[in-house]
Amino acid sequence: MSVDGKHEGLLVWQEEPFNAEPPLDLLRENFVTPTELFFARNHAPFPAVDPSQYRLSIGGLVERALSLSLEEIREQFPRRTQLVTLQCAGNRRQELMEVAPIPGEVSWGLAAVSNAEWAGVALRDLLLAAGIAEEGRHVAFLGLDEVEKHGERFGFGGSIPLRKALEAEVLLAYEMNGAPLSPAHGYPLRAVVPGYIGARSVKWLSEITVQRKPSSNYYQAHAYKLFPPHVTQETVDWERGLMLGELPVNAVICHPREGEPVPAGPVRVQGYAITGGNRTVERVDLSLDGGETWQVAELAGDALPGAWRFWEATVMLPAGETQVLARAWDSSANTQPEQVAPLWNFKGYANNAWHRVMVTVSPT
Amino acid sequence: MSVDGKHEGLLVWQEEPFNAEPPLDLLRENFVTPTELFFARNHAPFPAVDPSQYRLSIGGLVERALSLSLEEIREQFPRRTQLVTLQCAGNRRQELMEVAPIPGEVSWGLAAVSNAEWAGVALRDLLLAAGIAEEGRHVAFLGLDEVEKHGERFGFGGSIPLRKALEAEVLLAYEMNGAPLSPAHGYPLRAVVPGYIGARSVKWLSEITVQRKPSSNYYQAHAYKLFPPHVTQETVDWERGLMLGELPVNAVICHPREGEPVPAGPVRVQGYAITGGNRTVERVDLSLDGGETWQVAELAGDALPGAWRFWEATVMLPAGETQVLARAWDSSANTQPEQVAPLWNFKGYANNAWHRVMVTVSPT
Question: Do A261 and A363 meet the contact criterion of CB atoms below 8 Å apart?
């Protein structure tokens, strides 16, 4: 199976809904991920949208509800571009699954994350045009896709705090990497929320609602919540979970890959690091001795809030097997926890333990 | 020695400059810390300020430089109150010092942190009155105290990003807990920056400068930077450190204390947790088996950005010694790293490893 415009080499976890991540080595080749390689996370088939009939509604706690055509959105509001990395809350779930099973969830590896240049309008500009009522605290998004769940059909939805929604960098995007959004990535319009889990960047966007509380959509009120390790599908009280929003700090080694043999001599280690909110990745450390001693990696490019940061380092490895591990630090002095097991949660979210790769050096 | 208005029971690490923290059990008694117990972190003697001569200057990249008397500040700008917890970047340094020596720094225990209700004006309001030039990116503060360092005398200073400075919650405070600021806490005016290391909340404030770059003051450009474990005073390149700003997530067990004998039966464990930026503490977990299994603590009150959160739990401990440990999670799904050693840095900042306390239960 293939999806129009997507790379043949994607690791397709599910065909319908379409869930796929790029091979890690290809992902690390480009700071701006080519659209064909951009990971895909969906909960329903792509909706077919007739652009001439399309309207975006903005309502709820606003002074004047709006209903806008694509043309009105493009013409009435200034165009903005923004580099934004999206990451699925379930990125690195595979490592959690090795601790204990997580049934019913996609077994994402290390590449449910990608970076693109988005163009569109600032959500802020539309909200200010509608006028926000004093009681407004959250901005909810609803998509045109049709999820089937528990005998009901509904659009995928989610929300972000109003404070975040008013930041100029939160976009309603109609272009991705210089081309109109493809059906796979939310044509004709999608939210793009920098520094938040990908689920809040709702695709095929049809409704924006300003409200007192977070969205009551299944994907805000039930899924995408973080629970402690002892809670299971059987014992969960959905009200009590930590509603995911901003991403935690994370670093992933992309090269060498686990078990990949490398020739003797200096080894180039490369990866990406990411953090949430408006924070930036400020340092990546590597260790070859389980965290006893550390070597600081070189960071590529500037520290950009909302975007990942590439890093690399040259390490000297002895012949045989060595575990290489990485941890990142962000501008809030947050760093990553050491082990995966204490992070285990039955939905498999937010794994940001030190990333460990066993590298095999051929004897000379 | 005692300082006017401060509690006799404070643990005084240094008399001049005055550096002291409250006993942990007294700290945990009040969600709003009484001023007499509020920790004190200083780099110079308290300056004597004549309120009738006092002027606050606002300059640099602004449209009109301002020089304001106390009366003008109070009368021309709306009064705002804000609950803000300040925490020294060196809180929990003692545990880092147990890993390896950190000469020349205060050996803060677990209580270089306190919470107060501040009243004053929003920094934002003054900045908007001055008008910010387009190139402005950082807002620098300078105090009236006189630090002696490397043969020079200068006021303590620091800066915050303009984006932060424009948040309504950043205050220039003239009151603390319903009374005028005391000389020990910055009379007549101080910055109060929620969610940032305490060092950015400059006391005895005299100058505000809007500028392109962060402050070049010693305490922004050299001190209060985070370095990797292998960097020492001898090898440091000050340019390369992570400039501390927003606090990382942290949790501390206040009761029982290390080694404190408790009677057999249910043990009430109590503590505080804190995080940075506008994030909130969303969960605190306790473990009695080194992180294998976890129990979720009860959180007190609401999740307030910029303020700490009290928590407590009842645990069952066997007779003898048990290590109780705590970790917090914030709204960004960041949690704490496990061990202190991999966080060691030669200035002793930002220790947020799992807090571990050995509790001794008397046999029944």
Answer: no
Chain A residues whose CB is inside 8 A of the B247 CB are 332-333
Q: Strand, coil or helix: what is A32?
A: coil
**Which CA distances in Å does A274 have to A59, A251, A308, B139, B234?**
33, 6, 5, 26, 31
Contacts of B27 (CB under 8 A, 6+ apart): B21, B33, B37, B111, B113, B114, B254, B272
CB contact under 8 A, B333 and A291: no
**Contact status, residue A269 vs residue A257, Cβ threshold 8 Å:** no
For a pLDDT cut of 70, what percent of chain A falls above it? Answer: 99
What tens digit of pLDDT does each residue of B169-208 get? 999 999 999 999 999 999 999 999 999 999 999 999 999 9
* Residue B2, pLDDT score: 65
What is the ipTM, given to two decimal places? 0.96
Q: Which of residues 232-291 of A touch B (CB under 8 A)?
A: 242-249, 276-279, 282-283, 285, 291
Query: The pTM is what?
Result: 0.96
Rounded Cα distance, B267 and B255, in Å: 9
Q: What is the DSSP string of B21-63?
A: E--HHHHTT-SS--GGGS-B--SSPPPP--TTT--EEEEESBS
* Range scoring the smallest mean pLDDT among A6-10, A91-95, B98-102: A6-10
pLDDT at A1 over 60: no
Chain-centroid distance of CA A142 in Å reads 18
Query: Does the pLDDT value for residue A104 go beyond 70?
Result: yes
- Pure H helices in chain A: 24-27, 70-76, 93-99, 123-130, 162-165, 218-221
Q: Is the dihedral of CA B231, B233, B239, B242 positive or negative?
A: positive
Q: Sort out which chain B residues have CB atoms less than 8 A from A294's CB and list them.
A: 228-230, 342
Do the Cβ atoms of A17 and A204 come closer than 8 Å? no
Which among B278, B74, B271 is positioned nearest to B169, based on CA atoms? B278
Dist. CA B195–CA B93, nearest whole Å: 19
Q: How far apart are the first and last CA of chain A?
A: 43
B342: closest chain A residue by CA: A291
Which value, in Å, is the radius of gyration of the alpha carbons in chain B?
21
Tell me how far apart the alpha carbons of residues B323 and A1 are, in angstroms, rounded to a whole number: 54
Query: What integer pLDDT is reported at residue B134 of this predicted model?
Result: 97
The whole-angstrom distance between B109's CA and the closest CA on chain A is: 19
CA distance A211 to B206: 42
Mean pLDDT, to the nearest integer, of A87-93?
98
Q: Identify which of B37, B200, B11 has the alpha carbon closest to the alpha carbon of residue B109.
A: B11
* CB neighbour list of residue B213: distance below 8 Å, 6 or more residues apart: B137, B138
Whole-angstrom distance, CA of residue B34 vs CA of residue B23? 13
Both structure tokens of A310: 């590439």
Round to whole Å and give the CA distance between B214 and A308: 23
What distance in Å separates the CA atoms of residue A112 and residue A181, rounded to the nearest whole number? Answer: 19
A-facing residues of B in 162-221 (CB < 8 A) are 163
In chain B, DSSP finds a helix count (H) and a strand count (E) of 6, 25
Name the phi and psi angles at B90, rounded to 5: -95, 5
Chain A CB contacts of B285 below 8 Å: 228
Question: Hey, how many other C-beta atoms are within 10 angstroms of the C-beta on A20?
Answer: 26
Place of tokens 């003898």: B320
**What is the CB neighbour count within 10 angstroms for residue A212?**
12
Among the listed residues B293, B290, B280, the one whose alpha carbon sits nearest the alpha carbon of residue B332? B280
CA dihedral B43, B49, B55, B57 (to 10 degrees): -10
